[in-house]
Amino acid sequence: MESFLERIKKAGGRLEECIRRFPFSFLMLYLITADGIFLILAEKESFELFFALVIGGLFTFLSELAYEYGIHRICLLIPAVSLLSVTVSYQLLKNYDNVYVYTALTGACIACISLIAFVLYRNRENRLLFSHLVKSAFIVWIFTGVILAGISVCIAAFHFLIFHFEEVWKIYGVLFLSVSGLFGVTLFLSYVPRPDEEIVVPATYRTIIHKALFYIYLILIGILYLYILKIVVTWKMPVGKLNWFGSFALLFYVVFYLSVDETDGKVQGLFKRYGACLLFPVLAIQVFAIAIRLHAYGLTTARLMSLILISVALGFMLSQMLGIRVSKCFLLIVVLTLVFTCTPFNIYDIPNSAQESRLKNALSKGGALVNDVLDEDVSMEAEYLEDARSAYEYLRYSSGSKSSFFEDFSESKIAKSFNGYDGSDRKISSFYYSVDLQDRMVDIEDYSQMRFVSQQDEDYAKELDPFFISLNRDKSGEQDDLLEYVTADGNKIIFRYISFEFDEDEKEILYLYWEGILLSR
C-alpha cells in the first residue's frame, strides 16, 4: 500500500513527464491560467482572449499528440498552429461579437476534441482506452478536489481568525484556476497513453462500470422495450416522453461500446457484437416521435441537435455492425460539427428557414399571403392562425439572422394580434428606488417596535397602491431622500427598495416588489 507521500512523489513525476511530452500545451495552460487570474483580480468581463487561448490550447495539444503518434513530423508546426488558432479566434471574437462566431468557435473546439480522440484510436481498437481516460479523470478530480478543499479551509481559517480579506472570493478564484489549470489538467494529460503503451484498467472500476452499471443500463433498455410495446398495443404516441430516455439510451450505448469487451463477461461480449441491433427499435421509435413533432411544429434548433446526436449514435452502431474502425466515428463527429456550426447549414439558420417556410405556408392557406403580398385585414381560420403564431413565436425569440419578410411581418396587424395588444401604443412606465439604510439615521422616538416588511405582507397591500401610483417616475433611482409612508393606523413604513411597472393607459400596476422597515407604536 503506497503512502500519501509516495503518491505525491508519483504525481510530481507524472507532472514532470507531462511537461516534457507536451511543453507547448503546458505553456498554453500557463497562459490560460494567467489570463484567468488577471480577469479575476482586475474584475474584467472581457473573455475574448481567455476563450481564444482555450481554443489555442486544444489545437496545440492536438498538434503535439499528432506529432507523438507519428501523424506529422514537423516540430515547428506545433507553435505555428498554436499561434494561428489563438490569433484567428481572438480577432473573430474581438471584431465580430455575434452568435455565429461563438457557435463556430465552440464547434471548432468540439471538432478538435474529436480529432484528439481520432488520433488516440487511429491505431488502437482497444475499448479500454475510454475507460482508462474516464478512470484517470476521476482520480485527478478527487486528487485536485482534496487539495482545493484543504487549502480552502486554511484560507477560511486565516480569513476569519487572523486577517479579514475584503475580497476573499478573488483568493478562492485564483486558487481554483491555479490548482485546476496548472495541476489538475496537467496531471490528467499525463495519463494520455503513448502510442505503444499498454492500457490497464483496475478491476474495481471494471466491476462498477463494466458490470454493475452495465446491467442497470440493460434494465433501462428493457423499460424502453416495454414502452414501445405499450405504444404498439394502445396505438398512441405520448408527446414529449420518449426523446429524453431514448437519448440517454443512445448516449450510454456509445459509452459501453467504447468500454466493455469479452473479458468483462458473456453478456458484455454479446453486447459488443450485437448491441447495435438491440438499440435499433429504440432509435426507430425515437426518430418516429421526432418526425411527429416536426410535422406538427416544424424544425427547431433543439430538434436539429437531437437529430445530429442521433446521427452520431447511428454512426457508432453502424461501426459495430459493419466492422468499421471506431476512429472513423470520431471523424464523423468532426464533419457533422463543422457543417452545423461553421457553414450556412448551421443550427440556427436551417430551423429559421424552415419556420419561415411554415409561417408563409400558414399565411397562404389562411388567405393572408397571396403571391408574396401580405393582406393584414384577412380573417384567418383558427387552425392556420395558430400555425402562423407558433412559427412567428419561434422566429421572434430564436438566434440567427431573420429575413426581410419576417421583419416586415413583425410590424403587421397579424403579428401584433399574437401578443394580445399593440405594444407600440401601450404606455408602460417603471419606477426603481433603492437605499442603504445602514448609513442613515432614523428617528424612532414616537415608536416602540420595529420589524422588516415586504411585498409578502398583505396588511398594507391595498392601502399602498395609491401611494406607489403617485410616485414621480421621472425621479426613479434617486436615493438622497428616504421614501416614507404613514399608514392609516398611525404606523410608518420606511422603504429600502421599490420596483414596479405601471400601465399609464389602464392606470394599473403590472409588477410590484418592495421592502422596508415598519415602525409601530
Features:
globular; 521 residues; 17 helices; five-stranded antiparallel β-sheet; two-stranded antiparallel sheet; 4 domains; alpha+beta
Structural class label? alpha+beta
Unreliably modeled segments: 421-425
Q: Approximately how much beta-strand content do the residues carry?
A: 5-15%
* Average of the residue pLDDT scores: 86
Q: What portion of residues is helical?
A: 55-70%
Distance between the termini: 72 Å
Task: Write the element-wise H/E pattern from the N-terminal end onward.
Answer: HHHHHHHHHHHHHEEHHHEEHEEE
Put simply, the count of helices is 17
- Tell me the number of structural domains: 4
Instruction: Write down the overall geometry.
Output: globular
Largest sheet: 5 strands, antiparallel
Total beta strands: 7
Radius of gyration: 31 Å
Protein model, in words:
The protein is of the alpha+beta class and 521 residues long. It folds into four domains: 4-190, no CATH class; 203-342; 349-418, no CATH class; 428-520, no CATH class. It has helices at residues 4-21, 23-42, 48-68, 77-95, 99-121, 128-161, 168-190, 203-234, 242-257, 266-297, 301-322, 326-342, 349-365, 382-397, 404-410, 413-418, 461-470; strands at residues 369-370, 373-374, 428-434, 449-454, 484-486, 492-503, 508-520. Strands 3, 4, 5, 6 and 7 form a five-stranded antiparallel beta sheet that branches.
What's this entry about, in short?
This protein has 521 residues and is of the alpha+beta class.
What is the topological layout?
Elements: H1 4-21, H2 23-42, H3 48-68, H4 77-95, H5 99-121, H6 128-161, H7 168-190, H8 203-234, H9 242-257, H10 266-297, H11 301-322, H12 326-342, H13 349-365, E1 369-370, E2 373-374, H14 382-397, H15 404-410, H16 413-418, E3 428-434, E4 449-454, H17 461-470, E5 484-486, E6 492-503, E7 508-520
Antiparallel strand pairs: 1-2, 3-6, 4-7, 5-6, 6-7
Helix pairs in contact: 1-2, 1-7, 2-3, 2-7, 3-4, 3-5, 5-12, 6-7, 8-9, 8-10, 9-10, 9-11, 10-11, 11-12, 13-14
